[in-house]
Amino acid sequence: MGYLQEARENHVKKKVEEALRSKMKQKALKECDFYCSKYAECARGRTFSVVWQCRKQAKELNDCLHQFTNDAVLEEMKKAYMVEQEGKEKNQ
């Protein structure tokens, strides 16, 4: 499949892409809740020292979030959205 054809197939409107990104972020935060809690616990009561005191927890959280918020995940969500829309159009 050529690059242009693939780009056309995965093209969605800007508002739809923003909604998909938001959904992706919500899912990531839900999936990484354990790491969010660990980081929040470490950061509690700290100001500037959070940068070096919670570096390990921040890295763990970012690594987890990256699993669920990357371009590959977004492309899969776009494909699923397009398939869903095609199904709706066929049913009408």
From TrEMBL:
It comes from the Eukaryota. Belongs to the CMC family. Keywords: Disulfide bond, Mitochondrion. It comes from Leersia perrieri. This is COX assembly mitochondrial protein. It is found in: Mitochondrion. GO terms for cellular component: mitochondrion. Its main location: mitochondrion. The keyword Ubl conjugation does not apply. The keyword Transit peptide does not apply.
